[in-house]
Amino acid sequence: MCMTERLGYGRWEDIKLEVRRAWQFRFNWWLKSRTPNELKRRVDALIRLIEKENEEIAALEKQAERRRKAAQKRREQAGQSRPTAPKPPQKKRKTEQTQLNAYFPTKPSGSRP
Q1: How far is Cα 25 from Cα 57, in angstroms, rounded to an integer?
Q2: Domains along the sequence of the chain with CATH
Q3: Any idea what DSSP says for residue 11?
Q4: pLDDT tens digits, 48-62
């Protein structure tokens, strides 16, 4: 891929010579034995894979951007729907004893069944 970028797409003979000369591939007999046509097919397959990966990344970024915009819009709408008038005063909290009395009412004295 890098040699294709450096030498240009379509110069398969030159790419083959560079692969044979490169020290990184000195023991890679599979790559050194490829014909220019096979190198072309391999580079094309790699380019398709890279393009597909880039499209997936772009789609994920676009989806994330849509989500961010939707969240921002919801926040703005929630901010607009809040009342501008002051809140009504809250009820006083019952004391602990009044809460107990509500659960355990006392029986009137003097009246026994």
Answers
A1: 31
A2: 2-78 (1.10.10.60)
A3: -
A4: 999 999 999 999 999
